[in-house]
């Protein structure tokens, strides 16, 4: 099947459409229903009657946007009417939910009269926290938005006008930075004079462009003062009429610094791009085909061309999804009465700034592992970059508060963390640890310092104030990688080729001389293997923590720190723990990486150290030692180990947390089974520390939960070591390194 048939099947498969309504509160019992509806619902109704502002407190209004259209100008389809536009409006709702966790009702009004349309939308104000106008033909769209903005006390935003303006405006800010141009002196040519083009031109003026340097063309050619005087253009186009001779688009592009295409595909030739000024900016944004193709525009010039299109298969995609979800998110969360020019400007500036930062590995992978680094081919962030939410929305919220259109004030720092939590429980949990780690001077040795991911992670560790990263390895390679990546930081490097490492060799020899290591071998190990070098640095106190394992097999990476640093005084064994996060639950899984067949004593140690780790995430531990039996239902050596370990822990005064076992996994995590069937259990709530009977079970379980259960996994975190050491998995991403650095820094604070 082709794309059209696939899309039809996608939309009509049961249930039809793309959105649904779901409940957010329990509705399982008679009491639940009496709270949700009659008679309990009367109480919030009375409160709102006394103070309408409490609708934001008691209802979904504060997270609800109405996507409203009459289907008169659907992108690529034209005037198809209200009913036919519904799949597009549902799709808009999907984007709001997917990218900013905003709920949407799509409203298709079978109405083209401006007065009647506005009256219909105004009547729905009690339902929504904001209105997103969509796919309404011009020039009526200008009047509709203006009238609704004046008459309604909630944000009204016509995305077709302003979305492209904001996203391309962010690209413009970065393009002039990359090319060292001055916006105020640039000659800018527009192809297209519809709602989007006019709004974009106005926004560029807000960014610093000189309106006298903007030449706008419609299908009849350059919009001149002569045409305006003859009433050849509508009142909205007249604003950009210039005192120029009549001409066509080719004339307008000759010598221009920038081309902005918001018209139709294929109308710009290579010769027209060749006629532009030095190092031109070409934003050809017609969809689905741009005014000129990416390769064609680049091939037309020998100098630098910053090229943007509306397509995802080329660099610098101008995609409105980078704007409207996050603009509304910030506006809703301060209960804004409108969306102002300053709020739009804040969104564009935040997007521009984000494009200058290191790009997460997950985003790079989503685009086929192509390089994404600030420069001519990356001046606009990618739509799937999760950081857009907590970069743009706080900027918008802050602008709203500064301008006085916010009904409520928020702490933008705390707000950023709240937004981050919307992206998943793992981010919320990691923020607890990263905040604890911040503004410390813990020195974190990164053993594989010449790996690009380690260099990028070091930059982020330093930037976020998590600790002081120390990269181990060839200094020339490390500095070259940092320069190639354009990272604005000077890393601290320990290079065993040139730096004095004798003290580390001495200590390694002292520790291992009766384990078969000679003095010369100790020197060679420290010079050749940064795992031994990093372990010795931590053991001697020259570093506070060690991260390794990114390019090594887990056992070979773990061996040096075990030999040099060893386990803690109260531990004979180390263990690997994963934190698994679900939508509303967090569990710690141990042991998943180290001990193949732990004894009763090892299970006790693992449980105590994992509970301690949970507390570093502000999680009060409730431990379950797992088996395939419940509380003695099967008697053998395998089931006895977790049962006896649980009993020993309950008798241990240092184990100040509830623990029980042996028990089956569902008994441990399902409250009804735990409290009804086994009411005698020491656990009165589901367990959040799950200790598995052997390595096979732990490793298999965490991977199944991650891959099939939708859990996000953080780890493995190594517990039981004398000093903080974490051995990563090969292929971990930069964010995993940064997360483990945060855990290590918090561990080191307690040393």
TrEMBL record:
The keyword Metal-binding applies. Pfam families: malic (PF00390), Malic_M (PF03949), PTA_PTB (PF01515). Keywords: Metal-binding, Multifunctional enzyme, Oxidoreductase. Residues 1-24 are annotated as: Disordered. The keyword Nucleotide-binding does not apply. Residues 161-401 form the Malic enzyme NAD-binding domain. InterPro entries: Aminoacid_DH-like_N_sf, Malate_Decarboxylase, Malic_N_dom, Malic_N_dom_sf, Malic_NAD-bd, Malic_NAD-bd_bact_type, ME_PTA, NAD(P)-bd_dom_sf. Residues 16-149 form the Malic enzyme N-terminal domain. CDD domains: NAD_bind_2_malic_enz. GO terms for biological process: malate metabolic process. Its cofactor is Mn(2+); Mg(2+). Residues 8-17 have a biased composition (Basic and acidic residues). In the N-terminal section; belongs to the malic enzymes family. In the C-terminal section; belongs to the phosphate acetyltransferase and butyryltransferase family. This is Malate dehydrogenase (Oxaloacetate-decarboxylating)(NADP+). The lineage of its organism: Archaea, Methanobacteriati, Methanobacteriota, Stenosarchaea group, Halobacteria.
């Amino acid at each position: 099947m082709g794309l059209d048939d696939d899309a039809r099947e996608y939309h009509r498969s049961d249930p039809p459409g793309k959105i649904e309504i779901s409940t957010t509160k329990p509705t399982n019992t008679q009491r639940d229903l009496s709270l949700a509806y009659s008679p309990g619902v009367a109480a919030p109704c009375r409160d709102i009657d006394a103070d309408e502002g409490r609708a934001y407190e008691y209802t979904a209004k504060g997270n609800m946007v109405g996507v409203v259209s009459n289907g008169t100008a659907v992108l690529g389809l034209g005037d198809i009417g209200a009913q036919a536009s519904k799949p597009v409006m549902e799709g808009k709702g999907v984007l709001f939910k997917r990218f900013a966790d905003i709920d949407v009702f799509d409203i298709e009004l079978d109405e083209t009269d401006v007065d009647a349309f506005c009256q219909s939308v105004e009547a729905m104000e009690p339902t929504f926290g904001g209105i997103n106008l969509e796919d309404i033909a011009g020039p009526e769209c200008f009047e509709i938005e203006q009238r609704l903005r004046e008459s309604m006390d909630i944000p009204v935003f016509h995305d077709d006008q302003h979305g492209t303006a904001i996203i391309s405006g962010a690209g413009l800010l970065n393009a002039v930075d990359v090319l060292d141009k001055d916006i105020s002196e640039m000659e800018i040519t527009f192809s297209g004079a519809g709602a989007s083009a006019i709004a974009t031109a106005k926004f560029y003026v807000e960014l610093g462009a000189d309106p006298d340097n903007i030449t706008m063309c419609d299908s009849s050619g350059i919009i001149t003062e002569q045409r305006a005087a003859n009433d050849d253009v509508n009142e909205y186009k007249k604003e950009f009429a210039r005192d120029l001779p009549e001409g066509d688009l080719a004339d307008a592009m000759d010598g221009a610094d920038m081309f902005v295409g918001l018209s139709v595909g294929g109308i710009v030739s290579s010769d027209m791009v060749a006629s532009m000024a030095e190092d031109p900016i070409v934003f050809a944004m017609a969809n689905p085909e741009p005014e000129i193709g990416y390769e064609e525009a680049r091939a037309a010039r020998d100098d630098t061309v910053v090229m943007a299109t509306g397509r995802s298969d080329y660099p610098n995609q101008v995609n409105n999804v980078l704007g409207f979800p996050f603009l509304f998110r910030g506006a809703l969360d301060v209960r804004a009465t409108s969306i102002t020019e300053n709020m739009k400007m804040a969104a564009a500036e935040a997007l521009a700034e984000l494009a200058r930062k290191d790009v997460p590995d997950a985003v790079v992978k989503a685009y086929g592992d192509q390089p994404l680094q600030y420069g001519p081919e990356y001046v606009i962030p990618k739509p799937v970059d999760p950081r857009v939410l907590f970069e743009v929305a706080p900027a918008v919220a802050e602008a709203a508060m500064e301008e006085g259109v916010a009904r409520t004030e928020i702490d933008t720092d705390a707000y950023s963390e709240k937004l981050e939590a919307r992206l998943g429980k793992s981010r919320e949990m990691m923020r607890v640890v990263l905040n604890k780690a911040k503004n410390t001077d813990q020195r974190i040795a990164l053993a594989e310092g010449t790996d690009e991911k380690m260099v990028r992670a070091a930059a982020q560790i330093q930037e976020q104030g998590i600790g002081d990263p120390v990269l181990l390895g060839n200094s020339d390679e490390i500095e070259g990688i940092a320069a190639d990546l354009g990272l604005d930081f000077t890393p601290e490097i320990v290079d065993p080729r040139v730096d004095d490492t004798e003290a580390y060799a001495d200590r390694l020899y002292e520790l291992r001389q009766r384990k078969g290591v000679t003095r010369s071998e100790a020197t060679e190990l420290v010079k050749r293997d940064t795992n031994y070098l990093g372990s010795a640095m931590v053991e001697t106190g020259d570093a506070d923590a060690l991260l390794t394992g990114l390019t090594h097999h887990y056992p070979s990476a773990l061996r040096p720190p075990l030999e040099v640093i060893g386990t803690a005084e109260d531990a004979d064994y180390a263990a690997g723990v994963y934190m698994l996060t679900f939508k509303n639950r967090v569990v710690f899984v141990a042991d998943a990486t180290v001990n193949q067949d732990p004894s009763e004593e090892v299970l006790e140690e693992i449980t105590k150290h994992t509970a301690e780790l949970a507390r570093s995430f502000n999680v009060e531990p409730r431990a379950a030692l797992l088996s395939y039996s419940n509380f003695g239902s099967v008697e053998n050596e395998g089931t006895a180990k977790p049962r006896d370990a649980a009993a020993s822990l309950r008798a241990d005064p240092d184990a100040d947390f509830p623990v029980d076992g042996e028990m089956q996994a569902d008994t441990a995590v399902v409250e009804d089974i735990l409290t009804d069937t086994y009411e005698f259990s020491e656990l009165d709530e589901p367990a959040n520390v799950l200790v598995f009977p052997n390595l096979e079970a732990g490793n298999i379980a965490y991977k199944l939960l991650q891959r099939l259960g939708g859990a996000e996994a953080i780890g493995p975190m190594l517990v039981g070591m004398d000093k903080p050491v974490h051995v990563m998995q090969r292929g971990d991403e930069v964010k995993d390194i940064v997360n483990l650095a945060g855990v290590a820094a918090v561990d080191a604070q307690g040393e």
